[in-house]
Amino acid sequence: MMLGIDDPNRCNEQVAPWHKLLRVHSRVLSALADDMEAEQNMPLTWYYVLFHLGNDCGDKLRLQDLAEAVHLSQSGLTRLLDRMAEAGLVERRPCAKDRRGAYAIITPVGKGKLEVATRTYLRGIVEHFMRHLAEEDVEALLTAFNKVLVAEGE
Fold first, then answer.
1. At 84, which CATH number?
2. According to the model, what pLDDT value does residue 8 have?
């Protein structure tokens, strides 16, 4: 599909799906963050860190990989992990093979919090997103998103 970049009206029509996607993402993410704060007294970003640590690579990830997974800078992740470590949810340990590298590791307390918070997260996904969609809508979204991901090399 060629964008009608010379015709502002046509261009606006063609980028409307992108803008709607961004609005939906923003609204649902905001609702999920509110739910996580209200029910778990925890920021949504903490949940994402716990999720990646608890579901990827044996309860630990290199800091650079975790920063990429949760879309934070290295320094932003460091500050976040400091607060999470104070809460007993994660630990940082040096990498034995690379003295400059370090791992973030989910603690037993963090695993317990992840288990409980996952219920809040999944309930929020259903409440704020999935319940508004028919099965055909979900299939169409998955098809469209997969096309973009394949085309963009993922």
1. 1.10.10.10
2. 62
